[in-house]
What we know:
With 276 residues, the chain is an alpha/beta fold. The chain folds into 2 domains: 3-93 and 155-236, P-loop containing nucleotide triphosphate hydrolases (Rossmann fold), CATH 3.40.50.300; 244-276, no CATH class. It has helices at residues 42-47, 72-78, 95-105, 110-123, 139-151, 169-184, 196-202, 220-224, 228-233, 239-243, 254-269; strands at 3-11, 17-26, 31-35, 57-62, 65-66, 79-82, 157-161, 188-193, 205-210, 213-219. It has a 6-stranded mixed β-sheet. A 4-stranded antiparallel β-sheet has the order 2-1-4-5, with no helix packed on it. Helix 3 packs parallel to helix 5. The termini are far apart.
Amino acid sequence: MVIKIRGLNFTYPNNNRVLTDINLDIEKGKKTAILGVNGSGKTTLLYHLNGITMPQTGSVEVLNMEVKKNNLSKIRQQVGFLFDYPDHQLFSTTVYNDIKFGLDNYKYPENEKDQLIRKAAKDLQIEELLNSPPYQLSLGQKKKVAIAGLIVLEPSIIVCDEPFSGLDGYTLLYFKKLLSDWIMQGKTIVFSTHDVDLTYEWADNVIILREGKVLKTGTVEEVLNHEEIYSKAGLTRPMLYDLFSHCNFKPRDVTKAKEYLKNFVFKNSGLSIFKT
């Protein structure tokens, strides 16, 4: 396990208790969704994974390092954090300088910086934006710049707060592929979301939070294929779950669902109403 959380509690200064007795293990090389309605504690939990917020009671261990002040520099180099709003982490006059910020902070050799920046920009397809002011970019472009600023440090864990919110269909598909490619490289993705359909289709593991407590955790199949979990968590059922609720086969993405229905029609009528 790359992340271990034991007995974590957190209360904000206004006495609003956000997390209560959180105990979790997060697997290496998996896409783990922190799923819950607004106000369930998702963002606060993510903030503990690289020390943006420090544990008040209990412990958080990342890559065998406890999250505490004397470990923060090492942890943050290995745990990249993508905020819900990329403007929260873009503040330089050019995209180039924003990507360069982390390299400066960790005192990378000057002769390596330019090569690393341009590689990250190429990977994110933003080479033509390097001299642009970040504030002039679209939301999708800003998220690409923010991610470039993370991956330039080659972290082993990427933590994302609502990474797909506000994106158009094309950019959403691009980011899903990008994050999936990182998983293939052995990285670990932890992301928060309130989107049940996205979690059902794309995540490997899921942690459901309700009012700051862990309601259920496990693989997507173990957690989201059970009817009772949705009412308990205040979540709507995924579209594909509803569509195939009375079938033995429960596809988790539209492509597999379409293939199943096409084969079903062929077997039962010899005709297909689906275009290929």
